[in-house]
Amino acid sequence: MAYLAAAVIVVGIIGLLNLILAFGVIRRLREHTVRLTALEAGHGHSDQIMLGAGSTVAPFQAVTEDGVTVTRDGLTGRTLVAFFSPDCTPCRERMPQFIRYAAEHPGGRDHVVGVVASDRDAAGEYVAALTPVARVVVESDGGPLCTAFGVQGFPAIGLIDESGVVVASGSLIEDLSAPVAG
Fold it and tell me: Residue limits of the Thioredoxin domain (predicted)?
């Protein structure tokens, strides 16, 4: 009888610990759901998606899908730079608007860089869509360009001048019309 009582107490304690752990996990999931919803809507962190206006991009070097080397110091004029990931729903939704905007960017394709943060197998659709309007670089998330521009999420879009200073940035095309910070 004593063994049965001890077993019931042990099972009760384990059940109580399991319940406390489940409540903690549910609470964390709710917090993450709120954050993900805000990110997918393009709100909340759009000013922190990459380096902000007035910041200087770190030196970088990457090779485009055409085999051309792109460096920060090699950019001339204002350059439009965008980062996309095939795994992100907002990237897929905003890609057509970006392509239209990039097609009208002064200087044409030579002044637009599109970065696909992915492995080559998953990047094919994005590379095909961006190639007519941009020099396209495929790199892993956290690659040299993502690091140089301080990319924190996708899509990230920025406009930089010839000295590598960010003129405007955000996750929406509309963010590029924001005034330059002093």
Answer: 51-182
